[in-house]
Specification:
By secondary structure, the protein is mainly α. It is about 65% helix and about 0% strand.
Length: about 70
C-alpha cells in the first residue's frame, strides 16, 4: 500500500504541474507524461518547449512597443 501512495503522489505532482502550463507548452509535455517520464524530465521538457515557443512567437510577457500595435508600421 505504501508504493501506491508514492505513485499516486508522483502522478498527482505531474498533473498539478501540467495543469498550470499554457496549452502550447502542455502539448509538448503530454507525450513525456504518457510515456511515464520522471517529474524532472517533464519539467525539462516544459522548459525546452517554453524556449521554443518564446523563440517562435516572442515573449508573451513583453509589451509590444513598436510596429502596428502601438507605434507606426513604417
Amino acid at each position: 500500500m505504501h508504493a501506491i501512495t508514492i505513485v499516486t503522489n508522483k502522478v498527482k505532482r505531474v498533473h498539478m504541474f501540467m495543469r498550470e502550463l499554457t496549452f502550447s507548452i502542455r502539448s509538448y509535455v503530454v507525450r513525456a507524461a504518457r510515456d511515464g517520464a520522471s517529474f524532472q524530465s517533464i519539467v525539462s521538457t516544459a522548459k525546452e518547449a517554453d524556449s521554443m515557443v518564446r523563440e517562435e512567437f516572442g515573449d508573451p510577457n513583453r509589451a509590444y512597443s513598436s510596429g502596428w500595435v502601438f507605434g507606426s508600421s513604417s
